[in-house]
């Protein structure tokens, strides 16, 4: 019996040793070993792709290292599935986008597709969007622009300590993924830059975004159709348009959004705080099971808003009501200042009224006075203190 125990202990030790050894031995592929130049001018796309192919094909966990310096990288798709079960992209330097003429029409700068167990750590990605924004501001014919970093149809993804600046359009997009952690990320673009959303999530499950600061010209975080189990904590937003579930209900055949938690978010000078936004169009979409808690509003135009009458450019929605059903939305401990009189606005669908809205411990002021609340087709309950008084 004692022998058996000793034998098993030995086996455990050997396994631990092998594990340690193999992780020490994990292959490291340095971008410069593949010919990349840190001068910010030489196109390093081919080197990057070769490094990816090596890492992806490695039977061991693999690391791609981007050293200090500036690396110009064009449109690039890191495709899986990979042999390596764990790939880390360790960035110490800055990845720089090419001019918008080449990227803007493609729609995406760096894309990871069909990968599993990929982490992106540290570093900076610079989308260099300002010349595109100038083009748009001048009203010329300019391309739409590109998302800086996208993950598509992927699993077990981690993005940590990354800084993303001046994307042409969205900074980070998570589409059709499962198990994504975004941690300690910094996103920055001017408040006036068009469509520079911070993080957009759609068609994805089990997404966690924590400890992240987002300053942009559009949504801080936007949550699109088909998102379930998303957890957002300790995020700061502003300038920008705040955290938005939506726009939803643009299509009739659309997946719903379920189980969203947003806690301890701080909004500073944003257009919205906590928003749910749907098109005024027929749709079978839905939003249910949303918890907004412990949010701080500093001079926010619409701290709490449900807008089911969105109709940008009247694309088949004039005089129609939204088919998206919104239910079980809880607001707990939401405090601070509104930059407009109506701090709480539930403008729900006439054909599909909001149900199960719960308000608890709300205190929103406008110019140091209690703000106002407005309700249309909204039903729910209140508890604790609710200022402005609820109109549910
Ligand atoms: C809701 O999502 C969280 C993660 O954000 C998860 O821990 C929890 O189990 C989910 N709840 C349900 C009922 O699926």
TrEMBL record:
Its main location: secreted. InterPro entries: Glyco_hydro_28, PbH1, Pectin_lyas_fold, Pectin_lyase_fold/virulence. It is found in: Secreted, Cell wall. Keywords: Cell wall, Cell wall biogenesis/degradation, Glycosidase, Hydrolase, Secreted, Signal. It is an enzyme of class 3 (hydrolase). It comes from the Eukaryota. GO terms for molecular function: galacturan 1,4-alpha-galacturonidase activity; polygalacturonase activity. Its EC number is 3.2.1.67. Residues 1-26 form the signal peptide. The keyword Cell wall biogenesis/degradation applies. It catalyses: [(1->4)-alpha-D-galacturonosyl](n) + H2O = alpha-D-galacturonate + [(1->4)-alpha-D-galacturonosyl](n-1). PANTHER family: PTHR31375. This is Exopolygalacturonase. It comes from Phoenix dactylifera. The gene is LOC103706063.
């Amino acid at each position: 019996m004692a022998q058996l125990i000793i034998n098993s202990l030995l086996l455990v030790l050997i396994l631990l040793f092998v594990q340690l050894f193999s992780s020490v031995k994990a292959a490291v592929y340095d971008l410069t070993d593949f010919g990349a130049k840190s001068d910010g001018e030489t196109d390093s796309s081919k080197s990057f792709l070769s490094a990816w192919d090596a890492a992806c094909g490695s039977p061991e966990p693999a690391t791609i290292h981007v050293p200090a310096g500036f690396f110009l990288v064009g449109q690039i798709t890191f495709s899986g599935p990979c042999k390596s079960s764990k790939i880390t992209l360790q960035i110490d330097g800055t990845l720089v986008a090419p001019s918008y003429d080449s990227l803007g029409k493609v729609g995406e700068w760096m894309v990871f597709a069909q990968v599993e167990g990929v982490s992106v750590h540290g570093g900076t990605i610079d989308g260099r969007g300002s010349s595109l924004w100038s083009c748009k501001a001048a009203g010329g014919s300019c391309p739409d622009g590109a998302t800086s970093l996208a993950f598509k149809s992927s699993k077990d993804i981690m993005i940590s300590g990354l800084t993303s600046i001046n994307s042409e359009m969205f900074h980070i997009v998570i589409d059709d993924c499962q198990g994504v952690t975004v941690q300690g990320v910094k996103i920055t673009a001017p408040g006036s830059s068009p469509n520079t959303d911070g993080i957009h999530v759609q068609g994805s499950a089990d997404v966690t975004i924590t400890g992240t600061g987002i300053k942009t010209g559009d949504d801080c975080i936007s949550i699109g159709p088909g998102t379930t189990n998303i957890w957002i904590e300790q995020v700061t937003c502003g300038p920008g348009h705040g955290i938005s579930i939506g726009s939803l209900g643009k299509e009739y055949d659309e997946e719903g959004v379920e189980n969203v938690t947003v806690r301890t978010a701080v909004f500073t000078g944003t257009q919205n705080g906590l928003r749910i936004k749907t098109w005024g169009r027929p749709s079978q979409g839905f939003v249910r099971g949303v918890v907004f808690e412990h949010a701080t509003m500093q001079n926010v135009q619409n701290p709490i808003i449900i807008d089911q009458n969105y109709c940008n450019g009247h694309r088949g929605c004039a005089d129609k009501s939204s088919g998206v059903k919104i239910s079980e939305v809880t607001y707990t401990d939401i405090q601070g200042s509104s930059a407009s009189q109506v701090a709480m606005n539930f403008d729900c669908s006439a054909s599909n009224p909001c149900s199960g809205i719960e308000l608890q411990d709300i205190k929103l002021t406008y110019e140091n006075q209690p703000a106002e609340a407005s309700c249309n087709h909204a039903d729910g309950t209140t508890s604790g203190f609710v200022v402005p008084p609820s109109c549910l």
